[in-house]
Amino acid sequence: MQPLTVIINFPGGIISPGNLYNILVAATRAKIQYVRFGLRQQLYLDTISYNAATFTGELSRLAIDYEIDQSQYPNIVSSYPAEEIFIRNSWLTEGVYQDVLAAIDFKPSLKVNICDHSQSFTPMLTGNINWIASAAAEHYWHLIIRFPKTNVVYEWDQLCYTNSISRLTRQIEALITSQPADFIDNIQASGAELFSLMQTDDYILKKATQPVSTVPFNLPYYEGLNRYNNKYWLGIYRRDELFKVAFLKKLCLLCTDTKVGQICCTSWKSIIIKGIAEQDKIRWNNLLEEFNINMRHAANELNFQVEDNCMEGLQLKNYLVKYLSIDDIRTFGICVGIKTRKKSEIFSSILIRKRYLVHFMGIKLFPVYDILRAKDFNPNERTEEVFSSGNLKAMLPEQLRRVIMKFYTFRKETSQYKKAVSPTAKVNTPLLEEENLYQCSRCFTIYNEAIGEMESNIPPHTAFQHLAESYCCPVCEGTKHEFIKISHSALAYTPS
């Protein structure tokens, strides 16, 4: 029987537990045992042609849109899964995400990304139409176009109001798709020409006073049961990308029973459940134990992006992760991508790209790998520089180690990094008198305003009083109110 892949979009990565449960019940009837989540926060279900009609018939009855073996209508990606837990002090709240997504009442054929500027958890520029929340003006958005099938990027000089996003997205898509010779697969595509064709009189716009500002890439640790806002969020990652249908069905029922209204799927092929109450923690732990769901994988494994439905890429990832672990290589701040197909979209600071040395009568022979780095190692940049080319698979671990070392050298030498925290700052550098220190009264962890907390996306020079009320100790999860201000001399004290 021919295998088929059914693709279901969840706009913005937001899933209703009830809808997901109905999809999973239909999958069970079609004898589907596992599902996967994709890079664009969508759901993949593999079946065989014999059972496909049963499954798609159920989806049609439930009025759930789907595609088979193609993605003519790519999912709308959003940074909503990071809202509250990885993003703090932003005007872009759950309600704003919901308003924007609800207003897009059509299925875009181009890739659309809707992201907060103050996060690096969700890729901002992997779409063709990329909306990025303004840091300076509430309810206004920057717009960056990445023309389809090119690396040509254009940033519009206008800011767009939230209520205008849907109509403007529709108009831009119509212009690009109606003139493919000008704007699709054309390295001469012109953003100025595109926007000269726009009718903008009916939109709420204002001139952008400065280009879009983003934060340095730092991928937060996105799995496990973690405290925030006096509640908990649960992140679940699967090494093989497979989620058991039976597990997800029980997860949906537990969400409903504990009044958790949404499940989020991320661009890292994981899921996040937010809003778990203290009294329900035990029930979630019991569910994880029932299905033997492992938590707390090594961070260097979570930092990889692999193409959707790519067993070869997964195997190569596991091969490289093994060597990173053996050599105890630090990968904080790096995103490593693996690309085995010519027309795939991968978000990465460092890209491992497969190619063949010989093409003969449709047969590909002698695979080798190139290692490329994004400009300034910024995953949102597409300017690629070849670090090492023509590597055999056995050479990749050492070449990956070398490019990672080059990344840390680059970080050390850039002024941006010097303004942040250096690896030795806490140990070897004398503390300045103007620095303010706050200590967790439970485990004695220090929050230094001058250093911030980069692993939690809190930049240097962030005042403690400006931290969100949901801030908690990264070690023991003590609340913000359990921190006390201390003097530098108190650091000499070492608790027994």
Helix and strand topology:
Layout: E1 3-9, E2 14-15, H1 17-29, E3 34-37, E4 42-48, H2 49-61, E5 67-68, E6 77-78, H3 94-103, E7 112-115, E8 129-133, E9 140-146, E10 153-155, E11 158-161, H4 165-178, H5 180-183, H6 191-196, E12 205-207, E13 224-228, E14 231-236, E15 243-244, H7 245-257, E16 263-265, E17 271-276, H8 281-290, H9 299-302, E18 304-306, H10 311-326, E19 336-339, E20 350-360, E21 363-374, E22 384-391, H11 396-413, H12 415-419, H13 425-428, E23 437-440, E24 446-448, E25 483-486
Parallel strand pairs: 6-7, 7-8, 18-19, 19-20
Antiparallel strand pairs: 1-4, 1-5, 2-16, 3-4, 3-15, 8-9, 9-10, 9-11, 11-12, 13-14, 14-17, 16-17, 20-21, 21-22, 23-24, 23-25
Shape: globular
Q: Indicate the percent of residues in helices.
A: 25-40%
Give the averaged pLDDT, no decimals: 89
The end-to-end distance, rounded to whole angstroms, is 66 Å
How would you characterize this protein structure?
The chain has about 500 residues and is of the alpha+beta class. The chain is about 25% helix and about 25% strand. It has 13 helices and 25 strands. It has helices at about 15-30, 50-60, 95-105, 165-180, 180-185, 190-195, 245-255, 280-290, 300, 310-325, 395-415, 415-420, 425-430, and strands at about 5-10, 15, 35, 40-50, 65-70, 75-80, 110-115, 130-135, 140-145, 155, 160, 205, 225-230, 230-235, 245, 265, 270-275, 305, 335-340, 350-360, 365-375, 385-390, 435-440, 445-450, 485. Strands 6, 7, 8, 9, 10, 11 and 12 form a 7-stranded mixed beta sheet that branches. Strands 5-1-4-3-15 form a 5-stranded antiparallel beta sheet. The chain has a 5-stranded antiparallel beta sheet with strand order 2-16-17-14-13. Helix 10 (about 310-325) links the parallel strand 18 (about 305) and strand 19 (about 335-340). Helix 1 packs antiparallel against helix 2 and helix 1 (about 15-30) runs antiparallel to helix 7.
